[in-house]
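During the second half of the funding period, the structural biology subgroup turned its attention to how the target accommodates small molecules. The most pressing case was calcium ion, which had performed well in the primary screen but for which no bound structure existed. We therefore specified the complex as follows and requested a full 3D prediction, including the ligand pose.
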Amino acid sequence: MAITDVLAASDISTAINACKAKDSFSPKTFFATVGLSKKSPPEIEKVFKMLDQDKSGFIEQDELQLFLQNFSKGARALTAAETKAFLVAGDMDGDGKIGWEEFSALVNAS
Ligand SMILES: [Ca+2]
């Protein structure tokens, strides 16, 4: 399973290039640009499972920080501010991590 099985490589490059500058990352812009917002729930779930690297069922803060590298190996880590903003945008129940339903809601709102 590769991220390019779900998303177009050209859309991934566009999305990664659009947030090259530190603190320019916005999850909603990224999900829209990368084409994830238009995907079906099973496809979105495949991506969620790739982002959940330790298979805990949640995307934790350390996984959020390295979020972009799931799309492109050479991509930068998110800054502390971006990671925190991403978490706040997705974490509706306030448990400090993003579950599947929260991820799906965030992607669909993008
Ligand atoms: Ca996890």
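Two results from this model are relevant to the next phase. The beta strands are 58-59, 98-99. The longest helix spans residues 41-51.
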